[in-house]
Amino acid sequence: MALIDSVHEAVRQHPADLVLAKSLFTHLTREDAAHYLREIRRALRPGSPAVVTAFLFDPSGPEMAGVRRAFPHEDSRSGGRVRYRSRRRPTAAVAYSRAELEDLIERARLRVQWLRPGYYPGGEPITGQDTLLLGH
Ligand SMILES: C[S@@+](CC[C@H](N)C(=O)[O-])C[C@H]1O[C@@H](n2cnc3c(N)ncnc32)[C@H](O)[C@@H]1O
20 to 30 Å CA-CA from 82: which of 36, 67, 89, 135? Predict the structure, then answer.
């Protein structure tokens, strides 16, 4: 059995009671974020929590001046829903519109059970990330 099959089988037999992704989604492309959300769904025991942090913004919210300063580069394919701090190295810091991350979460068949806004956005320096509790 290939290693990846053994890992999948172990996860199937022993689903996780907690998944923690702290300061991970702030470094993921949209494709990788979608992938890891699907993996969280697969690994997580029903009724158990996944704690995920992210930089979220509302494109029509008052925070956008701060968001544009902190994440000046729009992902051209995302219609403004994904922004990067650095064009040269997009995964240095990634921000998602709340609607975009919620779409990815829903497509992964997870639900947002709780969301705690971080200090971010709207001020400098960025001192906290938004925290989401996910489950299924
Ligand atoms: C800011 S660090 C956070 C580390 C740790 N979770 C913490 O809170 O101290 C970002 C982490 O994301 C990981 N990372 C970045 N891109 C990744 C990817 N595409 N797949 C898996 N891990 C990734 C890095 O290896 C790094 O450990």
Answer: 135
